[in-house]
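Researcher: Please predict.
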Amino acid sequence: MRHLLLILPLAACSDLAQVGRPPDFTDTAPTLEHHALYNIPLPEVTERRRAVDTASLWSSSQRSLFGDRRASVAGDILTVVIEIDESAQISNSSQRGRTGSQSMGMPEFLGIPQLIDRELPEGASMANAVSAESASSFQGQGTVSRNEQLTLRVATTIIERLPNGVLRIEGSQEVRVNNELRELLVTGYIRPEDISRRNEIAYDRIAGARISYGGRGQITQMQQPRWGQQISEILLPM
């Protein structure tokens, strides 16, 4: 409890530090994307071959007029096109019912029921010892409706080329408008052959895709419950 009381003022101070100022951009220096851009790849051709390529219009170099400009090695940049327009609707219903009845009596059994009847109160008899009825019913219905639409384009960087040729990409984008910072993060794995001639790839061609679009700032803070309310909802039983 003592540690919790020490943490709460620190959390409040972090919010107070942003009063009167827009949210800060995320530092890109410690990211893998920054490291891949600064990494110098190994030369693909020798100096002799490179001199020949520069003297010909039909050079196979990536920067030539007819060269393949698609991203292929760590540090290259390509564009991810995100066009999500999905909708889903699920409706389930179930109904169950059951009824049952059971009765048991012992009119005669070696004269034992008659002996028991003498000891029972007036009106009670072993002829109708047990009689039970039961009925149960259940009805359930559920509906799920979802509609998502998102259209974005973001530049990503090849972080790593795996031994099987698959490329690992990572990209981020931050846009600050009126003290509100919108963040877009994209990571995943792609195949070089899925990259188009325009050096673009669709989001549905990314394996293990992790796409995050959100924000932070004054508007986002107003839409979220305060940390004190979140803690009380977790701790309080009701």
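Model: The helical segments are 2-16, 32-38, 47-54, 112-119, 218-223, 227-235.
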